[in-house]
Specification:
Chain A is an all-beta fold. Chain A is built from no helices and eleven strands. Chain B is mostly beta strands. In chain B, strand 4 and strand 5 form a beta hairpin. Classes of the chains: A mainly beta, B mainly beta.
Chain lengths: 113, 114
């Protein structure tokens, strides 16, 4: 039973436009959400996070939105750049856990010049 | 470069064999997490150590075990290997055990079981 779902395996966006990556979750005990970016042959790299008590967190070109009632979060990248092409993983931490993360299967973003 | 090193990068072995994957955390990080990424799957948490002690267990098979040594490096031992154990194995380190922002991932070990 997948607790974190990324329903779009891939997304293609034109350079300069907005990329929106979506993530749904089922566990109401999640209290922290993160996005990781992964290039081929490298480990995941932390990108941005949001606490469950917030609905938005922004860091430069990256903004994460959390809709708790819908159990949905999204990552917005504006403007998208070719270097953003990577696999993006949504992850969640359960309240009371030791910090181990539950990951979605990832969305492969391709930003075309 | 995250500062987390994993060896070997690639490992090819046969069913029934045993292998050991090694992880050196970032300098000063006390916590080590192990994750498995199978084909078309997200990363699945296996086990966590903090300062030498096991702190959390996820979907880790009984055939798998891990430990963290006094110098804080960690080893993941996989035994009686099956074809389905073929995957990417990542370790991540963090300075404290419950702040997920600060998990830094290594480049992974790709295990192929033939």
């Amino acid at each position: 039973d997948q607790q974190v779902k990324q329903n779009s395996p891939s997304l293609s966006v034109q350079e300069g436009r907005i990329s929106i990556l979506n993530c749904d979750y089922t566990n109401s005990m999640f209290d922290y959400f993160l996005w990781y970016k992964k290039y081929p042959a490298e480990g995941p790299t932390f990108l941005i996070s949001i606490s469950s008590i917030k609905d938005k967190n922004e860091d430069g070109r990256f903004t994460v939105f959390l809709n708790k009632s819908a159990k949905h979060l999204s990552l917005h990248i504006v403007p998208s750049q070719p270097g953003d092409s990577a696999v993006y993983f949504c992850a969640a931490k359960q309240r009371g856990s030791q910090g181990n993360l539950i990951f979605g299967k990832g969305t492969k973003l391709s930003v075309k010049p | 470069d995250s500062g987390v090193t994993q060896t070997p990068k690639h490992l090819i072995t046969a069913t029934g064999q045993r292998v050991t994957l090694r992880c050196s955390p970032r300098s000063g990080d006390l916590s080590v997490y192990w994750y498995q990424q199978s084909l078309d799957q997200g990363l699945q948490f296996l086990i966590q150590y903090y300062n030498g002690e096991e702190r959390a267990k996820g979907n880790i098979l009984e055939r798998f075990s891990a430990q963290q040594f006094p110098d804080l490096h960690s080893e993941l031992n996989l035994s009686s290997l099956e074809l389905g154990d073929s995957a990417l194995y990542f370790c991540a380190s963090a300075p404290v055990q419950d702040f997920p922002d600060t998990q830094y991932f290594g480049p992974g070990t790709r295990l192929t079981v033939l």
